[in-house]
Design a protein that fits this description.
There is one protein chain. It is globular and about 60 Å long. It contains six helices and seven strands; from the N terminus they run ββββααβββαααα. The protein has 195 residues and is of the alpha+beta class. 22% of the residues are buried. Helix 4 packs antiparallel against helix 5. The chain has one domain.
Length: 195
């Protein structure tokens, strides 16, 4: 399901996308389609870039603008001023975690740059599971340092959300590994607060 389009980048792995609205699709995404920690994919020339939603911003340029505005009646805005209807919206921050192409899946910094207007789609549970397991079926979490470095104050909470989702998609043995990760996060938070 398409939910957004890339509008800019803050770095090679940190992108911003605008959630599609009723002018761009007949079925705009619901808020539950672009939640914190949602895995997404963006199609590129050589496969797909995999990312995760880690931030959001509301856009409302009209807030605080109490003066009159010269415009056509609201029912004619879609004809004469279609951009007027499109001024309010939602931006999401997407942190890129890896890629998938004909050579397989890889976690880490994607080598390609995404162009403006690249379409952002929600990943299915099966796609998320496949992205997190190697050929032997072992759980992978190689992008951990990317999240801790680039997700800022959301990093630890984002790791928890990922662990929660992966717990539902993995075996008991893999859940034990996720428990170790959770305990490590709790320990890091405890030590960090004591400093």
């Amino acid at each position: 399901m398409r939910i957004a389009k890339i509008i800019r980048s803050n770095s090679h792995i940190d992108y911003a996308a605008r959630i599609l609205d009723s002018l761009e699709t007949n079925e705009p995404p619901r808020a539950t389609d672009y939640y914190f920690g949602q895995f997404v994919k963006i199609s590129g020339s050589d496969g797909e870039i995999i990312g995760i939603i880690y931030n959001s911003q509301l856009i409302n340029p009209e807030y605080g603008n109490y003066g009159p505005r010269l415009s056509t009646p609201p029912e004619l805005n879609s004809v004469f001023s279609p951009d007027y209807l499109n001024e309010q919206g939602v931006l999401i921050g997407i942190l890129m975690l890896g890629w998938q192409n004909a050579n397989g899946r890889q976690q880490g910094v994607p080598p390609t740059v995404l162009p403006i207007n690249s379409e952002v789609e929600v990943m299915t549970d099966e796609e998320v599971r496949d992205f997190h397991h190697d050929q032997a079926g072992s759980l992978q979490f190689q992008y951990f340092s990317q999240i801790m470095t680039h997700a800022g104050s959301f990093a630890e909470q984002l790791i928890r959300v990922i662990a929660d989702r992966l717990e539902k998609l993995t075996s008991d043995r893999e859940r034990a590994r996720l428990l170790v990760l959770r305990r490590s996060l709790v320990w890091q938070q405890t030590i960090g607060r004591m400093r």
